[in-house]
């Protein structure tokens, strides 16, 4: 036997088995979900418990430099007047949106 014939004999037999079936889409989605969950758990960082100082008044957009500020309706205000002004503006916007929706509803009913 020559060297090349030995190599042929030592080679793994030709794959007579059918190739493994590809993963089903459900299995692929499950693997992707597991990978995403693992990545999310590694990326989790606990929130800081330190108080966050607001930077601007929600009503007038002034910088809040003084120690006292007002927290109302998930916003920070420099004084009570800014809060009242913001509430009035929001009420006007809500009324305009309601009026617009009512007008559109009437158009839809007429058509």
Descriptive overview:
With about 110 residues, the chain is mainly alpha-helical. It has helices at about 5-10, 25-45, 80-110; strands at about 70, 75. The protein has a domain at about 50-110. It has a two-stranded antiparallel ribbon with strand order 1-2. Strand 1 and strand 2 form a beta hairpin. The mean pLDDT is about 75.
In helices, the fraction of residues equals 40-55%
Distance between the termini: 94 Å
Reading the helices and strands in chain order gives HHEEH
Number of strands: 2
Spans of at least 5 consecutive residues whose pLDDT stays below 50 are none
Secondary structure tally, helices: 3
Strand order of the biggest β-sheet: 1-2
Cα Rg: 34 Å
Structural class by secondary-structure content: mainly alpha
What would you call the shape? elongated
Largest sheet: 2 strands, antiparallel
Residue share in β-strands: 5-15%
Q: Give the mean pLDDT.
A: 77
